[in-house]
Structure formats: C-alpha cells, structure tokens
Design a protein that fits this description.
Layout lengths: L3 H10 L1 H4 L1 H4 L17 H4 L6 H55 L2 H6 L22 H4 L4 E7 L4 E6 L10 E5 L4 E12 L2 E13 L1 H74 L9 H29 L9 E4 H18 L3 E5 L5 E4 L1 H17 L6 E8 L3 E8 L20 H6 L7 H11 L3 E7 L3 E9 L3
Helix pairs in contact: 5-8, 8-9, 9-13, 10-11, 11-13
The protein binds adenosine-5'-triphosphate (ATP) and magnesium ion.
C-alpha cells in the first residue's frame, strides 16, 4: 500500500512532481483514433449520476407516479359515472318500452278480430290491472314502434316507424347493431278466472337518443380529463418540488456535515500520527511490550487519515456542481496509465500477479491529471487486491471517434451478481472482500465513479464470481 503521508505530500506537491513524464510532455496534435467497438455503456457517461441528477430524476419519477395514480383515479371515477348514467338512461328507456307494450296489449284482442283496429283510437277503461290506463297512441313517440303477434307468433299488425327484423323473444332485447331496443310481453285474456294466451306485443325504441347523450358524455369527460390531466401535471410538479425541498435541504446539510467533520478530524489525526512517528523514531524509549500496540495505533491512524481524506474528497466533489474545467489540462492517457502501472508494479510483483499493459498512443483526455490518476490507481489497486497470487491483471484501451474506454480486467475473486448494484455505493464492501483485505474502507470505487462523472465519463463493470472482473472507464476524447 502506498504510504498516506507520502501520497498526501505528492498531492500537495502537485501532479508535475508526481508524474513528471506528463508534466513535461509537449502535447502533439492527436493522431486519428483507431476505431474499435466501444461498449454501449460508454454513451451513458454523458448522464453523470450526480446528486443533482439523482434528485431531478427522483422528482420526475415522483411526478410520474403521482400522474399515474391520478390518471387511474380519474379513469375509474369517469368509468363509474359513465356506467351509472348509461344504466339510468337505459332504465328510463326500458320503463318507456314497458308502459308502451302494456298499453298496446289492451288492443290485441281487437286487432285479432280486425287488423284495421290498429289505426283506431283504442278505448281504455280503468281496469285496475296495475299498468297505465292511457291509450298506447298517447304514449308512443316518433322513434318507437309497436307490433302485435298472435299466440302462434305470427305478426298481426304494426304501428310506428320501427320494425325490428330479429326473431320474437320474450323480455328485453337489443339488436340491429345495438340501434334498436325492444320489449316483448305476452298478452292474456281472462274468462271465468281462466287465463288464456292471446298473443304477444313487442314495443321497440331507437337507442339513438340515448347513445347521443352517452357520446356527449364521453366527449365531455374526455375533454375534461385532458384539461384535468394538464392541471394535475402542473399541480403535481409544484407539489413534488415542495415535497422534495426538505429532502434536498437535509441532503445538503448532511454533505456539509461530512465535509466539516472530515475537515475537523484532520488536525487531531495529524497530531496523533506525528506523535506516534516521533515515538517510533526513538525505539529505545518504548517498552518492548508496547511496540506492537504503537504499531497498531500507527496503522489505525493511517487508515483513519485515509478514510477522512476520502470522505472529504467525496464531500467536496458533491458540493461543487460544475467541474473546474479552467484548471484542467490535456492529458496523454497512455502516459498517465504507464505512470499508474509504474506505481503499482511493485505491488503486483510482491504478490506474483502478472500486470499486462495494452495501450494506444496519442489518445488525449481533458481533465485533472491527479484525479484521473486516482481513478486508475483505485481500479488497478482493487484488481490487484482482489486477485489471488498467480493471477493476471490487464490494463487496456479502446477508442472510437469520441470515446476512449480504459479496461481494467482481472482474473480475481469476482463479484456476485447480487452485489454488483452496490459496489459504487459509499462505504460498501463485500463480505468476501473483508476476509481478503481487512483495511479497505469501501470508498475507492465511489471516488473513482465521482471523478469519472465529473470528467463527463462513467465507470461500468461486468464480473463473474470466481472468474474475474472488468471495470471500464469511458471518457470523452479531447481532439
Ligand atoms: N476487482 C475487483 N474484484 C472483486 N471485487 C471487487 C473488485 N473491485 C471492487 N470490488 C468489490 O467492491 C468493493 C468496493 O470497492 P472499493 O474500491 O470501493 O472499496 P475497497 O477496495 O474495499 O476499499 P478502499 O478502496 O476504500 O480501500 C470491494 O470491497 C470489493 O468487494
Ligand atoms: Mg478499493
């Protein structure tokens, strides 16, 4: 592991000292890039998952859910209202048909004797049989029709404009493509308490007027629905913005707290570290029984300093929305990666891991060299740390016209598919990683991702447990 104090000193001293080959490099005109297939994920780099972006997408998702719920409620309530109206309009139509059929039934006996009786005004005595004692002619409307049938279902007479063609059937029927509704009732005569079937009466009415009202209702609720949707959309946007405000505020406070706490922790940690280092320079003053404890304190302090520095870096990355592009330089990527490899070559040798480099010349990216150095260092460190001895780690590059993809591939322990969604989360470590390496904090990938996204890029991963992992950093090429 690279000593913390040395690393900090190098960062302070600037990238020029840390990577002399890059600092001194006179940038030549970039050569035409070699065209190779770039993974689809590279294009995602443009959608940097910054907290601002996450809040925005959360707001849109909330609005989407709100709209979906409101639309569902409106559709259901409109449907219920429509069904209620349709039912009550058809109920009224049924009542009209029943009254007409019952009134017309009184003429059946007369019509059976003389078919012309249909045109005569029917005489209706008040017979107290429970139906309306009004002549059927007075009830009939222009869009209605009445037919009289004998007991053998042969039509005897017809009145009105409607004459349905469908077969006679007792009860309500809708036919002619739903345009005519009919009611057929049997008509009886009573003599000496005996009931005798005289025939049938069928009353019909066009459903046109009912359908016209229902069509108007459909249009009305459609137009009102669109209007309401617009208003719900505007209202929903305002509501989601209002409801997100406290969450965004808490997030800002949390970020500020992390930044402040990390900053405040730096000084006491530096003091502890300096004191321990001073003590370690005089081993003769240390009681032999305390040497181990002192080493443990020194190691824990280093680990904590690193964690604090990492947290501070992340908090600062979160705090600034726009990347400070004015301070960025044009960096030859192959040289940057060579320096990363140089830095970690001793680690690879120590654990007998083969480190392969497959680089392309004259590929340039614009950015903060020390930050990009950190990205590739973190990835290569991970690859080495999570690859058992004898494995291979390959650092390679591929390009198309606009993107360069740097792949860090290892033949290590791999990552379980259920863990993949979490590996870029802050302070997340797989249990297996803990057993492999105690001292990690789980911030390395979060930092790498934050830096890559600040550079307009992205990091993606594919991995198979027990086979290996491949992390791909896509960055826009500077041309
Ligand atoms: N190349 C890899 N192979 C297998 N697992 C990996 C690899 N890289 C990352 N991981 C998994 O992702 C987790 C997060 O990685 P990250 O670099 O963020 O943290 P860390 O290496 O545990 O600690 P730190 O980098 O802060 O010292 C690791 O703990 C490990 O479980
Ligand atoms: Mg790591």
């Amino acid at each position: 592991m690279f000593p913390i104090s040395k690393a900090k000193a190098q960062v302070r001293a600037g990238f020029a000292q840390m990577l002399p080959s890059i600092a001194k490099h006179k940038i030549p005109k970039p050569a035409p890039t070699q065209s190779r297939a770039i993974p689809r994920s590279a294009a995602k780099g443009q959608n940097a998952v910054t907290p601002q972006f996450q809040f925005k997408s959360l707001r849109w998702r909330l609005l989407g859910s709100y709209l979906m719920v409101m639309v569902a409620i409106r559709v259901i309530s409109n449907g219920v209202v429509y069904e209620f109206f349709a039912h009550s309009l058809y109920q009224q139509l049924n009542n009209r048909l029943l009254n007409l059929a019952q009134a017309a039934a009184h003429s059946l006996v007369a019509i059976k004797q003389d078919k012309d009786a249909v045109d005569q005004p029917a005489y209706r005595p008040l017979d107290g049989d429970g139906d309306l004692d009004i002549p059927w002619q007075n009830l009939s409307k222009p869009d209605q029709g009445v037919e009289w049938f004998g007991a053998d279902k042969q039509r005897l007479a017809i009145s009105g404009t409607l004459s349905p063609t469908f077969p006679l059937q007792e009860g309500f029927q809708t036919g002619e493509q739903g345009q005519i509704r009919t009611l057929t009732i049997p008509a009886y005569s009573y003599s000496q308490g005996q009931r005798q079937l005289e025939g049938y009466v069928r009353a019909s009415e066009s459903t046109e007027s009912v359908e016209a009202v229902l069509t108007q209702l459909r249009w009305g609720s459609g137009v009102a629905g669109v209007l309401a949707l617009g208003l719900i959309g505007v209202g929903g946007m305002w509501l989601t913005r209002q409801s997100m405000k406290p969450i965004e505020q808490s997030f800002q406070q949390l970020k500020q707290f992390t930044a402040d706490a990390s900053h405040e922790l730096r000084s006491p940690l530096t003091a502890i570290k300096a004191s321990v280092e001073v003590m370690q320079t005089h081993p003769e003053r240390i009681h032999p029984a305390d040497v181990e404890k002192l080493n443990a304190i020194a190691s824990a302090t280093s680990q904590m300093s690193r964690l604090v520095e990492d947290l501070l870096l992340l908090a600062r990355t979160d705090a600034t929305t726009a990347a400070p592009t004015r301070e960025w330089t044009v960096i030859p990527l192959d040289e940057l990666l060579e320096d990363v490899e140089e830095r970690l070559e001793p680690n690879a040798e120590a654990q007998a891991t083969t480190l392969k480099l497959e680089l392309q010349k004259d590929i340039f990216v614009k950015g903060d060299a020390s930050q990009l150095f950190r990205v590739f260092c973190n990835l290569l460190e991970n690859a080495l740390q999570y690859t058992p001895s004898g494995g291979t780690v390959t650092l390679s590059m591929s390009t198309d016209e606009t993107w360069v993809v740097v792949s860090v591939e290892d033949t290590g322990i791999g990552i379980a598919p259920e863990h993949l969604p979490f590996i870029f989360d802050r302070l997340w470590r797989a249990d297996k990683a803990r057993t492999q390496r105690q001292e990690g904090s789980g911030l390395g990938l979060a930092i790498a991702q934050a830096i890559a996204q600040r550079h307009g890029g992205n990091i993606t991963v594919r991995s198979e447990l027990g086979v290996g992992s491949c992390f791909q950093v896509s960055l826009p090429i500077f041309s």
